[in-house]
Amino acid sequence: MTITRRTILVTGAAAAAATVFPLPHIARAALPLKQPALPFAEADLAPVISAKTVGLHYGKHHKAYFDKLNTLAAGSRYADMDLIEIVKAAAKSKGADDVKIFNNAAQAWNHVAYWDQFVPGGSNRPTGNLAASIDETFGGYDGFTKRAVDVSDTVFGTGWVWLTRDDDNKLALIGYEDGNNPVAVGRPAYLGIDIWEHAYYLDYENRKAEHIRAVLDRLINWKVVEERINA
């Protein structure tokens, strides 16, 4: 399953009551919204993600989403909202300006969740109830990583793969095009894999699957994922 902007507009209202976990480092404040600092040094994720990639990804791409969002939202109905409120409100709107605001707000939020889920060296594998849920849903951790790669191939062009919940409230890996994300349709976003080319191309060229496996095997802080699930 791949989620597009049209899917969000169709399903957003129906799922609006679902609980969405709060992200650290994002305060409830009016504009300008500030890009949080990385929770590690740029070189700390190497060799899985190089310092050069982190520098460009965080310092150029992620920063640009915050900068553009602050410009677009100034003086609008979004000006007094926090980031997650902007994402959810803009997702329900069809105006051209709303679409631009949604795209930048969603990507700003996506990347905060992305950086916060990493820890140098990772914690290798989930444990306890989360490990049991992954085993039950995906047939083990190898099945989980394979499913992540397979779902990434359903996303045409740029996008994300998110560990979230499906319509039956079961754990699921779902592909989202462009900056779309689970929170826009009221679903939780437990773990996100960025499959825009700027996330991996300098290090892996066209070997997207290798990048996904390396990230899942060596960088994920599964304690953070568990905290998001339990929030």
From TrEMBL:
It comes from the Bacteria. Pfam families: Sod_Fe_C, Sod_Fe_N. Mn(2+) binds at residues 57, 111, 194, 198. Residues 36-118 form the Manganese/iron superoxide dismutase N-terminal domain. Keywords: Metal-binding, Oxidoreductase. It is an enzyme of class 1 (oxidoreductase). Residues 126-228 form the Manganese/iron superoxide dismutase C-terminal domain. One of its GO terms (molecular function) is metal ion binding. InterPro entries: Mn/Fe_SOD (IPR001189), Mn/Fe_SOD_BS (IPR019833), Mn/Fe_SOD_C (IPR019832), Mn/Fe_SOD_N (IPR019831), Mn/Fe_SOD_N_sf (IPR036324), SOD_C_sf (IPR036314), TAT_signal (IPR006311). Belongs to the iron/manganese superoxide dismutase family. Destroys radicals which are normally produced within the cells and which are toxic to biological systems. PANTHER family: SUPEROXIDE DISMUTASE, SUPEROXIDE DISMUTASE [FE] 2, CHLOROPLASTIC. This is Superoxide dismutase. It comes from Rhizobium rhizogenes (Agrobacterium rhizogenes).
